Fold this protein.
Amino acid sequence: MAIKPMLLHRRQWLQAMSGMALLASMPLASGATTVPSPQFAAAWAVGPELFVGVLQLPPHADAALHIVHAHAIPTRAHGMTQLSDGSLLFASRRPGDWLLRVRPDGSEQWHWIEADRAFNGHVIASHDGQHLYTTETDLADSQGLIGVRDVHTLEKIAEWRTGGMDPHQLLLDTDGSLMVANGGIPTQPETGRRKLKLDHMDSSIARLMPQAGGSIAGQWRLQDPRLSLRHLAWGPTVAWAPQRRWLGIALQAEHDSAELKQRAPVLALFDGAQLHATPIPPAAQWQGYGGDISCQGTRFAVSCPRADQLTWWQVPATPKAHGQCLYQDSQQGVYCVSNDSVLHPLQPSTATLWTGGNQQVRQWPSSNAVAGSADLALDNHWVQI
């Protein structure tokens, strides 16, 4: 996602921050109570300046997102997560070199990666909360790694191979295993984000077992090697195997032909045993680019920012059926998608999902605009906290 320069001047932003701090410090009238609006760990830009921190929805839909607190960063951030102690962890966009922890008191803890490694944009905590897992690339051979890090110091204590190149997002399963999306795009240290040798792509989903030293317990690939598996979201239970959950994967097509890209799927589904791409409707114009992904009830939502569309998908009810595109909703520049699963850790929420675009934040299933976002440029992801 390209962050566009905004017209908000730094002085205006600082004045807004000061005003919000003053408002936050004012005592409530006796007996008054407030219902807190949803807050999100997020990354954004104000003009050329980059930030991470916490954004809050305003009390009225005609108001802008509130900046609760902001922390300047040297390069774009990508993924973020909240740890059990309330602190927030932000990972730099690939090929990245920093992690930033923001503690509940607002203090910062920076960590810089080793010279022969690069961060790939996502980080999560282990099942017991004692370690962090980061997706990384070994710059010597371009192979993918999971960095295992101490949750307190952020220092690496181990690393595991992911069975492919360009590992991107990763999620924990209920048994403590790791599901990792290997994007499969070859890159080299000196070329940064430039994609090379796409005819050698090897994208996959891999299951790693932390309890067995990160060994690979399974690996699955799509038939089309030019589809890069990138972002992940857990969905509902599988109808014919209730012990398993659906895993939705947002896809990004890397075909040489624009026509093939236009026809490419934006969603793949994994039922715990089989991985397959979900066909798009004949008239879809999504440019083969699935951005973020989240789940609401039995539906996955995949943002398609290059087409300004949020797409909705129903999981199949029988083993041999495909997922179905239910409909699409227009939202300019829609990318970041988050549900309130923070309130329902074991099941995808059936209540609320939030999407951020160039001009507004919208709430689903009502599709209401609940905040303006034009004063800052939201980046690829956010997480409700």
In short: The longest strand covers residues 241-253. The first helix runs from residue 10 to 25. The chain has two helices and 28 strands.
